[in-house]
Structure formats: structure tokens, C-alpha cells
Design brief:
alpha+beta; globular; HotDog_dom_sf; YbgC/YbaW; 3-stranded antiparallel sheet; Thiol Ester Dehydrase, Chain A; hydrolase; Acyl-CoA thioester hydrolase; 5-stranded antiparallel sheet; 3 helices
């Protein structure tokens, strides 16, 4: 399955007094990776919401291996786990500059109708974009 990779420097505000990234910030890093994966696939999260679809996280799992530090360049690799249905699942790896794995993670998000707050199936246009992306 196709994956996307983004890189950025750890900001001071994301660390504790020892310069280590606070563990709760990794969820935001995963979101950054996921939003960019969607964008790179041709899907605007903003446009999905404008069309009445939201993607709340229903499951989050993180396995911490090593710490990330202030001003370190880190990369988030985001991979679609399988073809979406009512849920969309992603696997992630976060690396430091030496290509050491810092975190392995996974998320499950549910497609929800914003008006009814009920689960819905993955929109057809999204499946088509994913299929097109997988063929590249």
C-alpha cells in the first residue's frame, strides 16, 4: 500500500525541560501525517467536512521505542492499512535523522455523518482516489 512521508523539526514547546518530546504530542504528529496522506491522495479533509463528513479517531495505539528531542528533524511515515469501509485504518512509523524508529503507531477513524452523528460508509469518490493512488 502507498505511503506518505513528512518531515519537520521538533519545536521547543513540544518538549519537557530535558528537551524530550512530551508523549502526548505524538498523536498530533500522527494527525499531521494522516492529513498530508489524504491531501497527497487528492482528498481535502476540509472539503470532506464541508460535505458533512467527519473522521473521529476511535482507536489510537502507540509503541514508543526512543525519544525525540528538541530541534531534531523527524519524519512521519503514514500508510493506509487496508481499503476503507466504515472505518479507515493507518499505520505509522516516526523516525529520527539517523533513520532510527522512534514510534510505531496505528489509528482507526470512523466515517461519520456530521448531521446525524451516525457512522457511514467510505464515500465512493474517496475509494476511487485511493484506488487511483494505489495504481501509481
Amino acid at each position: 500500500m502507498y505511503f506518505n512521508k513528512i518531515s519537520f523539526r521538533v519545536r521547543y514547546a513540544e518538549t519537557d525541560q530535558m528537551g524530550v518530546v512530551y508523549h502526548g504530542n505524538y498523536a498530533q504528529y500522527l494527525e499531521m501525517g494522516r492529513v498530508e496522506w489524504l491531501r497527497d491522495t487528492g482528498i481535502s479533509y476540509k472539503r470532506m467536512e464541508e460535505n458533512g463528513i467527519m473522521l473521529p479517531v476511535v482507536s489510537l495505539s502507540l509503541n514508543y521505542r526512543k525519544s525525540a528531542f528538541y530541534d531534531e528533524l523527524i519524519s512521519v511515515e503514514t500508510r493506509l492499512k487496508k481499503t476503507p469501509s466504515v472505518k479507515i485504518e493507518f499505520d505509522y512509523k516516526i523516525y529520527n535523522e539517523q533513520q532510527e524508529i522512534l514510534v510505531e503507531a496505528s489509528t482507526v477513524l470512523a466515517f461519520m455523518d456530521m448531521r446525524t452523528k451516525r457512522p457511514i460508509r467510505c464515500p465512493k469518490y474517496l475509494l476511487e482516489l485511493i484506488e487511483k493512488r494505489e495504481k501509481k
